[in-house]
Amino acid sequence: MTETITPRPVRSDPSTPSGLSGPGLFAVLLAAALPLIDFFIVNVALPTIGRDLKAGESVLELVVAGYGVAYAVLLVLGGRLGDLFGRRRLFLAGMAAFGVTSLACGLAPNAWSLVAARVAQGAASAVMLPQVLATIQAATSGARRARAMGLYGATAGLAMVAGQILGGVLVAADLWGTGWRSVFLVNVPVVVVGLLLAARTVPETRSQSPEPVDGPGTVLLAVALVTLLAPLTEGRAAGWPLWTWLSLAAFPPAAAAFWAVERRADRAGRTPLVPPSLFTLVSLRRGLVLILPFSIGFSGFMFVVAVALQQGAGLGPVAAGLALAPLAVTFFFASLAGPRLVARYGTRVVTAGALLQGVGVALIALAAWRSWPHLGFLEMLPGTAVAGVGQALQLPVIYRVVLSEVPPARAGVGSGVMGTTQQASLALGVAALGTLFLSLVPNAGMRDALITALLVQLSGVALTGLLSLRLPRRVG
Q1: Cβ proximity of 321 and 173 under 8 Å
Q2: What pLDDT, on the 0 to 100 scale, is given for residue 208?
Q3: 146 or 116, which is more confident?
Q4: What gap in Å lies between CA 355 and CA 341, rounded to an integer?
Q5: Which residue, among 56, 76, 68, has the nearest Cα to 272 in the 3D structure?
Q6: Which distant-in-sequence residues (6+ apart) come within 8 Å of 409 by Cβ?
Q7: How many whole angstroms separate alpha carbon 150 and alpha carbon 136?
Q8: Residue 12 has pLDDT above 50, yes or no
Q9: pLDDT tier for residue 299 given thresholds of 50, 70 and 90
Q10: Whole-number Cα distances in Å, 414 to 132, 274, 364, 473
Q11: Three-class SS of residue 207?
Q12: Mean pLDDT of the chain
């Protein structure tokens, strides 16, 4: 398939990627931050939501799970639709829908209305986010693409940390008496600004040979992801009833059926939802494998630390969020240096990043062991600062590796596959490390449970470092 790029009538800026002006890049990066912020921003608001809407723990879990499952299930389809019908068109539609559903979340009169609005918000995110990476991939090249991907990685990592911090600040501030509702309503003016900017600056990119959506593949992928993510995200709060185990047991055959259908469609000359030929790309395949342990460890760490600091160390939501601020700051600045380091040292930068992240996690575990229960900003500062640098040398580079060989005409489906892998891993991290941590607390105590969870994450960091040695040394 060939690629069409239709530039918008904007002033050219030679310092920005070809085909994507500075304001256009800002608009798509703003959109990239919103879904990731919303995945984490709700964590610290859940207790307040529960009290205000009189919702139990299982319903509150659905507020998180409904968003995450809808987001993950529809990401690949969203990317494919952008490839077929125009990424700018889908981007604007997804961003507008994200703003409307955020407003619905903020105005929800009861818990089940909030759950429904969160599911719709996840679906809107799945339409919007794949177009970001696909637009960067299709409308840039060379050093400008490397710079744009570095900024994307910096934005994504910062958004995941900032979401938890921002959630605590907004809930504590209780702006105009809105309480927890402000964590959703704050999206609305941001979306309005983003839409006005994107409508003028984001170029249209699409395939010249659009093909129909793979219906059977779409349904089977949705079934496979739901059978995996629904029990993982809801099981802990529900007490792991029988349906969660039956659902997990259904995942392997559902995934196998999806892959068989996709291979059959590929061999028959049709275009499957996820072309198996994508996985012949060594960079994509090995990059996706790295996303798994990295994202599992990251989301598990954020959940466990938030609970430990608030319920164990007695910090408020703002103080608990600010304890992670050094991680966000060092991540952002270190990620800006990433493109230059990769140009000089190649993908061994990822290995070095894993080593630094491991040192940071070990320092946080040491601080918990020595200072508990007086664990806060100063005690965690050395560990969070070092860990932020380590993560910044991994995530943006991994993103770049995954998409480096994906043809521009398939940029949407490539970014959708990467986003689905990351989202599923984030859900798995909260389920796995969160369940381990909470199950240890009654017998081992909060401190030892936290240290154990951090040591488990440390093993995941070591795995990431080892796997990074298999990446291609150079990345385009």
Answers
A1: no
A2: 65
A3: 116
A4: 16
A5: 76
A6: 1, 2, 3, 83, 207
A7: 11
A8: no
A9: confident
A10: 12, 8, 35, 21
A11: strand
A12: 85
- Local structure of residue 203 (DSSP, 8 states): P
pLDDT exceeds cutoff 60 at 5: no
Q: What is the rounded CA–CA span in Å between residue 90 and residue 136?
A: 15
Residue 337 tokens, joined: 């240096």
Could you give the residue ranges of the DSSP H alpha helices within 107-207?
111-139, 142-173, 182-185, 187-201
Q: Which two tokens stand for residue 391?
A: 């993560």
For tokens 């539609």, name the residue: 93
Rounded CA-CA distance 9/353 in Å is 40
With 0-12 CB in 10 A as exposed, 13-18 as middle and 19+ as buried, what is 386?
buried
SS3 185: helix
pLDDT-derived band at 381, boundaries 50, 70, 90: very high
Q: Say if residues 434 and 264 touch (Cβ distance below 8 Å).
A: no
CA angle, corner 159, sides to 153 and 165, nearest 5? 150
Q: How many CB atoms lie within 10 A of CB 414?
A: 28
Amino acid at 338: G
Phi-psi region of 210 (alpha: psi -120 to 50; beta: other; left: phi over 0): beta
pTM of the model: 0.81
* CB-facing half-sphere around the CA of 4: CA atoms within 13 A: 15
The type of residue at 298 is: F
